Amino acid sequence: MNAYPPALLAQLAPVMFVAGLDAFPTPDSSQPTTTTSTKANDFGLLAARLREALQTERKAATWQPNKTKTCQVILVDKEVQFPPRKFVSQEDPRYSAAHSLLSPLTPTSRLHPDGLIAPIWILKHTSLVPSVFVLFLRIFEFSPSDSGSPLDAPDSNRERERELEERKRDAELASEVVLRKKTTNERGIKLTVVLMATQRMLDDPTFDARLTFIRRQSGLDSPAALFVLSPVSPSELGVFVTSLQQTLYEHALEYYTAHSKRVRRKRNRHSQAISYPIPVQGSSNIARPLRPEGWAVRYEYKMACFAEFRGDDEVALKHYQDAHSMLVVMFGSTTTLPPRTYRWAEAKALADCINVKISRHYLYSNEHALALSHHNTHMRIFSDFLRGWGMGEETFEYWSWIARQHRILAELLEQGTRSTSMLPVHKPNHNSGSGGLAAGTLEVESMRSLGINPSHALQHPGFYYYMAAKCTEMRRERFLTALELENTQESVMASPGFMNEKKVDHLTIILELYTKAYELFKKYTIVDPQNPTQERLTSWIAYRIAHTYYASAKYDMAIRFFERIAKTYRREKWGSLLHPLLSTWLACARELGDVELRVKLLIEMLGHDIVEKDGPLSYGEELVAVLKSTAPSSDEVLLVDISESQPIFDSNVVFWAPEVKVGEPAAFQISLIAPHNVPVSFLPISSLSIYFSHRDCPLVIRHQDSEAGPSSFQLMNLTNVASSPEESGDVFANLRWQKGGCFIFAGTISSELPTSLKGLSPRSRWLSSVDPPQYLPIEREASSSVNVRHRSHALAVSLTHESPAYLNEKYLFTINITNTDTRPFDVVVNVLFPIEIDGAANTIILGDECSTNFIKGVPFGVLAPGVSAVKTLYLVNTGAPGDRVIDISVQSRSTEAEADPAEPEGQDLTETLSTLVIPTVDPIKVSQTISFTRRSWK
Amino acid sequence: MAPNLRLNAVAFISPQNHPILIRTFAKQDEHSIKYHYIAHTSLDVIEERVSAAGKATECYLGLLYAMEDVAVYGYITPLKVKIVLALALSDSVVRDVEITMIFKALHMTYYSAISNPFLKLNPPTDAAHDHSPYLLVGSPKWKNFRMRVDEISRVVGNTPNAVSNP
């Protein structure tokens, strides 16, 4: 907004001048009030409070939509003079024919002869001439000490003296008012006098008479012309200020209405009689008077402003729109407004400011689409004009102007959203098919329900700041081209605009705009607490900021940004965004001479497998060159952790079988595949370490040059990788890869403990043939991990019984367990006997244990290999007959392994489950039948 | 009558937010990176809309944002594949019905492309970043998907008011 005169942008409101308040010294609160100065302080305090209350009512701002009918208060000196209206004094007979000082018809005016509207015209109405003038005056009072004691006898002489003195003072006051009234009357300004008097004075019986005298003397007879105020409490003062504002607001409106009428009269007169000569073509150097279109713009603009002062927004809008379209007509002809002249620039700024006022009007009433549509139309019309004026897309002027338009919209929105404006949410209307709106709605409404025009979809100001920054980047680009052209051709390109452009620090502007956009994007991001990763939009802008820092040679700042942004892009694996970032980052590192960073970045970029030459060397060559030519800043080993980013080699671990037993070798293959596009054969790899989860230290494979050179396929058999490092010596291999070359390390590992050996690659294939290399896909889910389990225990369990069982019988049941394994086991048996039949009460007896449903942990002792153990189980079933189900679990535990009770997985334990169904019947079944026949009587 | 819609770019993004395919139809090649940024930043708005809508998310997410010369629209399939559309910005109302229709066609294209059983055959070992083989449909190896997306763009660009007058 600084690009335009603030006067042309500010929200207009009736202006009220307040004078006379500075006559009272502001009380110094630090000093204790002495009794003698109390009264003076009372008024000082009152004046200070009044100043504060009046000025907080309304502040001058670009965004000021509130419709509280208040005036813009300006504190002025009592003796303030209004600017002369005309060049000649009022007494002069030429007065009526003379023009205003600011008129283009006045030769001394800045607008002479063909200017439209200067900001000074608005300034005149916002700060030099009020619509109402409030004058605070202190009525003369004798101090109470002078009045003598009430006990004194009335002294008629003294009384008369005092009366005369008062009369004299009052007359002075009245003449002061009269003087002021003369100047205000001249301009139709309402004058209101506020007399300040003590409470004692108000109660004085002579006061009314004095007041009447002053009123008559000074001609303050009209309503709301005279107020009296005594020192009151702040809340009462607030009431006074509000009522003063409200009363005078009406008068202010009258003042501006009178102005409007005057301007309208002039406009009508003007449109009827065009008496200004049309200038001859080609005589552009000679001063030409303002053309009728120009006068129309002037009048429309003035009427718009007076309507805006009145708060009549609809009328203001109409006049502003008329002024804008009239300006467009004027710009349409290069003879009316020759491009690149002072008047032309002035008119362009005026058009831009009118556009802002129109857009702002729509935004006040939350008509977002209309606001944006007007703004876009303005930009479209004027960018067409700019092209016509030879300031098209290829010039910095064009982009400078476009950027300014985006920026001013952003600034307006930013101010607006801070107070009243709400941003629309552009979500699709999913109920559009319901047809509820079908009949009787406006066409616009129905169109809205169908979809929106994206170019009318208002977004948060960050977007427009971003656009402004982007356009400023274009502006800088065009400027640099022009500069280059100037240097090579030495042509006479030194137009004043270009000279000015040379002084512009484009990068600082770009940075400022991007930073604002960044802050706003951050502000408008709705962070989902469950998923706080929404930083893509901000990352994008941060990337642009980093780029700007890079362009302005602030490499350390750029690096700080790159570091943070890269994290987002790495995490989301958007290589296409990461590549340009890395290459600019690398360029920064080169500029800073940071060897470590350069090495880190080069290694990361090698992993991205892109053949993109950045300078004469490929990334790999550059890495080798850096390693050979420069010394690191410290002796410490540089550890490049690329776990976040893409590794250079694609590594892959695959196990043949998903599960092996303890001590059994698990076959694995590890493959390392070099990038396909970037050569890595010259990387001086000296050793490769393979880390195993069951070993503390890695298996190190050292480089050994071989005559064959880098190969495309190598297989290395590591045989059985022992679990302790001492058992295996160093292994040597040729650690040089061709493009896309593959190195496979095959071997087996075994574990003495049940565990899970894990690799990290999700998809894998198994090398099945070396020449030619062929692979078998391993389709199972966790192909890169293997579970190592204990071998299961071999136990033979036999259960002998003779069914069916009878109710109430002690049913006998033998459990015979034989260890058929080679290891001794500790065997424990659990018996579960669920009750499934109603009314059945059952008992199980095993050894000493007796239970109705569950016997736990009956020891069978340690069974050596080949040894059997037998136990007898009794079952007593009562109640109803039916099938009884019994679960027997035989748990065997290895006596060798020390069991860790905390880890049931790791225990060498086998459980054999068997379920028996025992039909249970009544021991004796008695069935009786009685049959009888009736003998027939004969 | 509204002018034809012109697609500048289409992006398919996996449920894990990795790019599947970003296809640009604008002529200038140097700007294709721009559409990568647009696709990536759209995810922010998509996530915002999805989380705001809760469980009642519709597939069509509407206008995500308008920036520079494009209007960006979003769509999320029930299996969380995101489709982002960059339309050339023109001063006219874009009807949601039309955009939804384009999205549905793109969704079907993706759907039929991933139905290709050969995608899962012999997956390359170097595609170890994502667990989904569906990322592969965007690789240059599978031309059909690209061809169909291009076809949709062509049809949208050539048909005046493609779906507005059914």
UniProtKB/TrEMBL annotation, chain A:
State the name under which the record lists this protein: Trafficking protein particle complex subunit 11 domain-containing protein
UniProt signal peptide? 1-23
Region listing for Disordered, in residue ranges: 146-167
Q: Which organism is it from?
A: Tricholomella constricta
Alphabetically sorted, this entry's keywords are:
Signal
Q: What's the superkingdom here? A: Eukaryota
InterPro entries reported for this sequence: TPC11
Where the record annotates domain Trafficking protein particle complex subunit, the positions are: 343-607
Q: Where is the composition biased (Basic and acidic residues)?
A: 155-167
UniProtKB/TrEMBL annotation, chain B:
For this protein, the record's Gene3D superfamilies field holds: 3.30.450.70
Q: Which Pfam families match?
A: Sedlin_N
Domain of life of the source: Eukaryota
**Which ranges does the record mark as transmembrane?**
none
Q: Which InterPro entries match?
A: Longin-like_dom_sf, Sedlin, TRAPPC2L
Q: Which family does it belong to?
A: Belongs to the TRAPP small subunits family. Sedlin subfamily.
Instruction: Give the protein's recorded name.
Output: Trafficking protein particle complex subunit 2-like protein
